[in-house]
Specification:
A hairpin with an 8-residue loop joins strand 18 and strand 19. This protein folds into two domains: 312 residues, FAD/NAD(P)-binding domain (3-Layer(bba) Sandwich); 100 residues, no CATH class. It has nine helices and 21 strands. It is α+β, with helices and mostly antiparallel strands. The strands form seven sheets. Strands 1, 2, 5, 6, 7, 8 and 21 form a seven-stranded mixed β-sheet that branches. A four-stranded antiparallel β-sheet has the order 12-13-11-14, with helices on one face. It has a two-stranded antiparallel ribbon with strand order 3-4.
C-alpha cells in the first residue's frame, strides 16, 4: 500500500465542536490546517451524536461560537438552547471551508510518530489508504485524547477508586404522525411500566418545530477507550431506546414514532490527559470564581455528575460560580507541540463534569487553535514558549470574555448546594 505524505502547519485530530473551532481559528490566521474526522460531518456529538442541546451559558465564548449559534438561528433551527443538528452540520462545514481548512472525513488516526516529546506526524487511514500528515503543531480534539495517549502522554480515566466513568447516552428524536400508533416491543425486551423504571434521565423535550428530543438512555460500566466495551455500549443503548420509545408511545406520546437516533453513542468521559495544571473540584467550587493568569476561557455549567452506578436521575448537581480554564490544562505534561481541547483536557472527574459541555469546548478549541497559530507565527517549536498574556489579548479581541465575573452561571436543575459528593456513587 503506497503511503501518501502531506505536510501542514497544524494538524487537528477530531472534527467535533472543539476541533472544528480550533481548525477555524488557526486557519483564519493563515496557517495551513488539516482537520481529520472519523465521520461524515463536523460538529461531533452535537451533530452526528444527536445531542441537540447546548448545556452552558451561550455568551462570551468567542466569535466562532457566536457565528455558528447565530447561523443556526438564521435557519430558524435554534430554540433556546435546543437546535436542529442537521443545520448545525451545514453551519460548521461552511465556516471551516470559508476559513480555508482542509477537511478529511472518514479518516482514523492509526499511529503517531513522536521524538522526545515532539510529535512529528500523524499516521492516518482512510479508504484503505495510509496517509502521513506531518506538521509543526498538533491539536488533539478526539474526545478521548487518542493522539496524546498514543504519543505517550499520561492520562486519568474514571473515578480514582475503581476507574468508573460517567455514563454514555444515545439520544433520539420522535416525530408526530398525526394519528395514534400501535406500540411494539420486540420479544425478549423488558417492558418499562412507569417513570421510575426509566434507565436514564426523564428528559423528553418538545421543541417548537414539532420534534421531541429525548436524552433518556444510560449505559454505565463501559469503557469508551476499549473497542469491545464501546461496541457493547452501543448495543445496550439501542435496546434501551426500543424500550423507552415503547413506553413513551403508551404514555406521553401516543401519536409519535422514532425519527432518528445518534449515529454514535454520546461519550461523557474517556481519557483525561494529564496536563501542566489539573483542574480540580476545589477550583470549580471556589465561591469567588477561580481565575488564572493563563486563563483562556470561562466555564459556566453546574457540576453535572450523574451517578456512576444507579439508573435514572441520581447524581450530584450543584450550581457553581463561573471559573477560568487555564492554558496549562490544555498542555500534556510530556509533550511539547501538542494541545488537547475539549473534554479530554487535564482535570479531575468532578471538574470534568462541569467543563465538558459543548459551548465551553468550542471556546477551548478557539483558544487552542489561536495559540498554535500564534506560536508558529512567533517561530516557536514548543507551545510552552508562547506568551499567555499575548494570547489572552488576542482571545479577548476575538470575543472570548475572560473575566469569570462577567459570565452567568448555568444551572437549570441544580440548587445552590447540591446533594454532595456521596451522590456520585
Amino acid at each position: 500500500m503506497n503511503l501518501l505524505e502531506k505536510t501542514y502547519d497544524i494538524v487537528v485530530l477530531g472534527g467535533g465542536t472543539a476541533g472544528t473551532a480550533a481548525a477555524i481559528a488557526a486557519a483564519r490566521r493563515g496557517s495551513r490546517v488539516l482537520l481529520v474526522e472519523e465521520g461524515n460531518c463536523l460538529g461531533g456529538v452535537s451533530t452526528a451524536g444527536g445531542v441537540n442541546e447546548w448545556y452552558a451559558s451561550l455568551e462570551g465564548l468567542g466569535n466562532i461560537f457566536d457565528h455558528v449559534r447565530d447561523e443556526v438561528a438564521r435557519f430558524g433551527a435554534k430554540h433556546g438552547r435546543f437546535f436542529n443538528g442537521e443545520y448545525l452540520k451545514i453551519a460548521w462545514q461552511q465556516m471551516a471551508q470559508q476559513a480555508g481548512v482542509e477537511i478529511l472525513f472518514h479518516t482514523t488516526l492509526e499511529r503517531v510518530e513522536a521524538d522526545h516529546g515532539l510529535v512529528r506526524s500523524a499516521g492516518l487511514l482512510s479508504c484503505s489508504r495510509k496517509i502521513s500528515a506531518r506538521a509543526g503543531f498538533f491539536i488533539d480534539a478526539t474526545g478521548e485524547g487518542d493522539l496524546a495517549a498514543m504519543a505517550g502522554a499520561e492520562f486519568q480515566k474514571g473515578d480514582p477508586e475503581q476507574g468508573r466513568t460517567l455514563h454514555m447516552t444515545l439520544t433520539f428524536l420522535l416525530y408526530d404522525t398525526g394519528k395514534p400508533v400501535v406500540p411494539y416491543l420486540p420479544d425478549g425486551l423488558m417492558e418499562i411500566r412507569n417513570d421510575d423504571e426509566l434507565p436514564g434521565l426523564n428528559a423528553a423535550n418538545v421543541t417548537p418545530d414539532g420534534r421531541v428530543y429525548c436524552n433518556m438512555t444510560k449505559v454505565t460500566g463501559r469503557d469508551a477507550t476499549d473497542p469491545f466495551s464501546l461496541s457493547a455500549a452501543e448495543a445496550e443503548a439501542r435496546v434501551q431506546l426500543a424500550r423507552i420509545v415503547h413506553y413513551l408511545q403508551k404514555t406521553r406520546f401516543p401519536n409519535h414514532m422514532l425519527a432518528s437516533s445518534g449515529a454514535r453513542i454520546g461519550i461523557r468521559e474517556g481519557r483525561r490527559i494529564l496536563g501542566d495544571y489539573v483542574l480540580r473540584e476545589d477550583d470549580v467550587l471556589d465561591p469567588a470564581g477561580r481565575e488564572f493568569e493563563d486563563g483562556i476561557t470561562v466555564a459556566t455549567c453546574q457540576i453535572d455528575f450523574h451517578s456512576l452506578t444507579k439508573p435514572g436521575h441520581e447524581g450530584w448537581r450543584q450550581k457553581i460560580v463561573p471559573y477560568n480554564i487555564p492554558l496549562r490544562s490544555l498542555i500534556p505534561t510530556s509533550l511539547k507541540n501538542v494541545l488537547v481541547a475539549g473534554k479530554c483536557i487535564s482535570g479531575d472527574q468532578v471538574a470534568h463534569s462541569s467543563y465538558r459541555m459543548t459551548p465551553t469546548c468550542c471556546s477551548m478549541g478557539q483558544a487552542a487553535g489561536t495559540a498554535m497559530a500564534m506560536a508558529r507565527e512567533s517561530g516557536h517549536t514548543e507551545i510552552r514558549r508562547l506568551d499567555p498574556a499575548g494570547l489572552r489579548r488576542q482571545l479577548a479581541a476575538d470575543g472570548i470574555e475572560l473575566d469569570p465575573q462577567k459570565h452567568r452561571a448555568f444551572a437549570p436543575e441544580a440548587p445552590e448546594d447540591g446533594p454532595g459528593r456521596e451522590a456520585r456513587a
